[in-house]
Specification:
The complex is a heterodimer. Chain A is an alpha/beta fold. Chain A is 41% helix and 10% strand. Chain A has 22 helices and 14 strands. Chain A has helices spanning 2-25, 50-59, 72-82, 95-101, 117-124, 166-171, 181-194, 219-222, 224-228, 253-267, 280-287, 307-310, 356-366, 369-376, 396-402, 405-411, 414-417, 439-444, 448-456, 490-510, 517-529, 533-556, and strands at residues 32-38, 61-67, 88-90, 146-147, 160-165, 205-208, 237-240, 245-248, 292-298, 318-321, 347-349, 385-386, 392-393, 424-425. In chain A, the strands form five sheets. A four-stranded mixed β-sheet of chain A has the order 2-1-3-11. In chain A, strands 6-9-5-10 form a four-stranded mixed β-sheet, sandwiched between helices. Chain A starts with a helix and ends with a helix. In chain B, strands 1-2 form a two-stranded antiparallel sheet. Helices cover 68% and strands 1% of the residues of chain B. Chain B has 15 helices and two strands. Classes of the chains: A alpha/beta, B mainly alpha.
């Protein structure tokens, strides 16, 4: 027995020493865990996620992720008062609130070109625009600049537009692409008369409107006339950008004409009455069933598109269109505003971050091309292949894997990429920054019938159906509707009030009985004029003046 | 044990009657202390947050990760402004009407239906069938409101089950948008609550019925009372105390029944009849960061609940000689 215990103790000693040796070998990057709070309700990654493991192994950083559950204002209010802050968090639309509460760490002195060259290069293009009203930079934006992409062209469509089911164009023999609202509805009416049911035997619905009353996503009910009108889209604020005079009016003639047209279509049975009683998830599910022929929406809200293609009916997918109310009017659909910073979007470090230098080093590493390729393309050989010209491509299995959510949970880092800096545009080797933007992959995903459609109209990619405007036509301070208003102020209350008013009246107007539209419109305008829009106009005017002064001061430096 | 002997002697010698009672019941009192602590910590201490209603509350960051209660004091005080805003908003009349109407309808319907169901289940003789009915009837209670409302929204859609049934029976000629009819919303709300809650609420009444002495039933049978007469003269009076008690308790929660169904099934078309005080607070209070308004509304609701509860208690005491408190 004595010999056995001696051998056992010897083995244990050796094991201990080996542990020491391996620890000694890795002193350069000690492991550190950062607590990251995401302001969106994303899915947590799987335990064995290979990308996060790679980050752990090579950068030594483990991310302890927490996702929003429930109401953001409640959660953030609680977080601020409790004193229990994560190390990093993203703004997710509540940037103004977070800055005012004082929990974000100012970064402009910390991020220098010597210490963090990649991060500085990423942020420096719009350095002044990243500053909040007190002159500090609190947030590192998710998409600040394009690399190697002078004309900012992209393959995917990230904007709002009128969507038309491809089958309408295919079955009607490739008619001219509609440019006015009337032409658009004409095509839908013709198609519905010929084909009342789809391939599954379900009845078609001509036009669907997302109108869930208490959901900010219901802009398809409230906004389209702003785009059709040929004016700059600004949420109903008519701003003179020289004098900053603001007139708030959402009951213009264009709105009258648009809702009147919808009313006519409703009475003809084209507009779906269910639009007004659905909530967002029901609406989203409906877009994937192949029963809708047309809607107005933003591509980033139509999460389920691509479903019909998977089910073998690619003709029920949609193309985006830009329309106008009158023939030949110029419209402003492809809005290049997303890259314009306002200092309130992106991710940042909190004042209780345990190691800001390390955190910034981590972000700096993420800004390199190597890590961006890992985050957006994956591991070479496993997730994508390289052809003889150096262009990345996906094999059929790899492409199929991408739409599998379980695979994605273990092999992609979509949570991190929703907040971290993105190398938009192209890498130095000519590949797009993500596989979704690589034209060859994107078009490779389309069915032959869809490629035929593109060919017929001489387009190389879907979004070319939408009229695109030259960049740089908007002043720096545009849009006025995104300027922050004080929490709990009268202006904010008026905003909520007109939102409520529209939730009640717009469905009523669209569903108005024959001949009653005009009287109802007059009532609606009367109700609208009871609101204290002057307070709102004043508040926005103040915000414009302040912001412009801020921008001027920063330019003068 | 020596300490307790000493205390016992002292109390026996010089203690008042009250002290003697407390000493005799010391174990029971010790058992209730955890519950008292729980209630005080989670129900009474948070009432200190009511100060938010009298301020223009803006959350501020605390120093390096600690909870700082002075955040509740270093705010702008506005007195009763938030209450004035609440009472003078033009939606106030409408939302109070909606809240009360739906709650009262719910209360009356649920009481009547639950009692009826309890009596009917009690009168059943087949044991297995009785158990089956009981289980099936209280299963909907366990569904969350989101699931229940999704099911209902699906059934009431234009090509859903209800429309198809009614069309096939010839009652309506084309599908009706049920969720878009404002005047029907109160009825819909009542029906949904009835479907979900009747089975569960009937359990209380069943328990009360089973507490009635079976001897009385036999005596009545011998005297020649029929089924219906037995229910009318024995069962109902027997559980009248329970009915009254539960009614008073539910009146206390009259103002709290207005969120789930209204939020999930309400829409732009039915707002005039579906918006309750909870939805109003969500939109104009918490939704735009106006915590002060939300707190003020909470205080108003609590005060109203207390007033209603005590009034109902008093009325019940005067009319039926039954008091809860």
């Amino acid at each position: 027995m004595k010999t056995w215990s001696r051998i056992l103790s010897l083995v244990l000693c050796v094991a201990l020493c080996m542990g020491c040796v391996s620890a000694l070998a890795d002193t350069t990057l000690e492991p550190i865990t950062f607590k990251f709070f995401f302001g969106n309700s994303l899915q947590a990654p799987a335990e064995d996620n290979k990308i996060y493991k790679l980050i752990q192994d090579e950068l030594g950083v483990t991310l302890d992720m927490e996702f929003l559950v429930g109401s953001a204002t409640e959660k953030l209010g609680l977080m601020v008062v409790s004193g229990d802050y994560p190390d990093m968090m993203d703004a997710a639309g509540n940037g103004e609130y977070l800055i005012n509460s004082g929990i974000m760490m100012p970064l402009e002195t910390l991020v220098t070109p010597e210490a963090y060259p990649n991060l500085y290069e990423y942020m420096s293009l719009q350095w002044d625009q990243l500053k909040a009203s007190d002159g500090h930079i609190y947030f590192i934006p998710n998409d600040n600049r394009e690399y190697n992409n002078e004309d900012s062209h992209s393959v995917r469509f990230f904007d709002k537009g009128f969507w038309l089911c491809k089958d309408v164009l295919i079955k009607l023999g490739y008619p001219e692409i509609p440019t006015t609202l009337d032409e658009y509805f004409d095509l839908i009416e013709q198609y519905m008369a010929l084909y009342p049911t789809n391939a599954y035997g379900q009845k078609f619905v001509g036009f669907e409107i997302m109108s869930e009353a208490n959901n900010w996503r219901s802009f398809p009910l409230r906004e389209p006339w702003m785009y059709l009108s040929g004016e700059w889209v600004d949420g109903g604020y008519h701003v003179d950008y020289d004098t900053f005079e603001v007139k708030f009016d959402r009951t213009t003639d264009d709105a009258y004409r648009y809702y009147k047209k919808l009313n006519e279509e409703y009475l003809k049975g084209i507009v779906d009455p269910e639009s007004f009683v659905e909530n967002f998830s029901e609406y989203n599910a409906k877009t994937a069933t192949g029963t809708i022929l047309g809607m107005y929406d933003a591509s980033w809200q139509l999460w389920k598109l691509g479903n019909q293609r998977k089910l073998g009916h690619p003709e029920y997918e949609f193309i985006p269109l830009s329309l106008s109310l009158d023939e030949g009017e110029e419209v402003f659909f492809r809005n290049p505003v997303p890259l314009r910073q306002n200092g309130r979007d992106g991710m940042g470090l909190t004042i209780t971050c345990k190691d800001p230098a390390r955190a910034l080093q981590f972000l700096d590493a993420l800004c390199t091309e190597k890590w961006q390729k890992i985050l957006f393309w994956g591991i070479e050989g496993e997730d994508y292949m390289v052809d003889e010209n150096g262009l990345f491509y996906l094999t059929d299995e790899q492409l199929a894997q991408r739409s599998d959510e379980t695979w994605g949970s273990s092999n992609t880092a979509t949570q991190l990429t929703s907040a971290c800096p993105k190398h938009l545009g192209f890498y130095s080797d000519g590949n797009a920054y993500t596989w979704e933007e690589q034209l060859s992959v994107y078009n490779g995903n389309l069915a032959p019938i869809e490629l035929e459609l593109l060919d017929h109209y001489g387009k190389s990619v879907d979004h070319q159906f939408v009229a695109s405007n030259g960049y740089g036509i908007y002043p720096d301070i545009y849009p006025a509707k995104d300027l922050p208003l004080e929490d709990g102020s009268i202006a904010k209350i008026v905003k909520q009030e007109f939102w409520d008013l529209e939730s009640v009246w717009l469905p009523k107007l669209i569903m108005a009985e024959e001949g009653t539209y005009d009287t109802l419109w007059a009532e609606y305008v009367a109700e609208y004029s009871k609101l204290n829009t002057a307070a709102l106009e004043d508040a926005v005017h103040e915000a414009l003046v302040t912001k412009q002064a801020q921008l001027d001061a920063l330019k003068a430096k | 044990m020596r300490l307790s002997e000493t205390i016992q002697e002292r109390i026996a010698a010089r203690g008042s009657r009250r002290m003697k009672v407390v000493w005799n019941q010391r174990e029971l009192i010790l058992l209730t202390i955890p519950y008292i602590l729980f209630f005080v910590t989670f129900n009474y201490i948070p009432l200190l947050g009511w100060v938010m209603a009298f301020q223009n509350f803006r959350p501020k960051a605390t120093t390096k990760g600690t909870i700082d209660l002075s955040v509740f004091i270093n705010q702008k005080w506005v007195g009763l402004d938030n209450f004035k805003y609440l009472f003078s908003s033009e939606q106030f009349g409408r939302i109070m009407r909606n809240t009360f109407a739906m709650s009262v309808m719910n209360l009356i319907t649920s009481t009547i239906l639950s009692v009826t169901l309890a009596i009917l289940i009690n009168e059943m003789s087949a044991r297995r069938f009785k158990k089956a009915v009981q289980t099936i009837s209280y299963l909907p209670h366990f569904l969350s409101w989101i699931i229940a409302c999704s099911l209902i929204s699906n059934m009431l859609s234009l090509d859903g089950a209800i429309n198809r049934l009614l069309q096939n029976c010839g009652i309506i000629s084309s599908p009706v948008l049920w969720l878009g009819q404002p005047k029907l919303f109160w009825l819909l709300n009542t029906l949904i609550h009835a479907w979900k809650g009747t089975g569960w609420n009937s359990i209380m009444y069943l328990a009360a019925i089973s507490a009635i002495d079976p001897g009385i039933y036999e005596a009545a049978q011998i005297d020649g009372a029929g089924r219906w007469q037995r229910v009318k003269y024995i069962t109902l009076p027997g559980i009248s105390q329970t009915i009254l008690m539960l009614l008073i308790m539910n009146i206390g929660s009259l103002m709290n029944q207005g969120f789930d169904v209204q939020y999930l099934l309400g829409n732009g078309l039915t707002t005039a009849y579906a918006e309750t005080i909870d939805i109003y607070v969500l939109k104009y209070g918490v939704g735009i960061g106006n915590y002060s308004l939300a707190t003020a509304t909470g205080i108003f609701k609590s005060v109203l609940c207390i007033v209603l509860l005590f009034s109902a208690n008093r009325v019940s005491g005067k009319l039926f000689d039954e008091r809860l408190i």
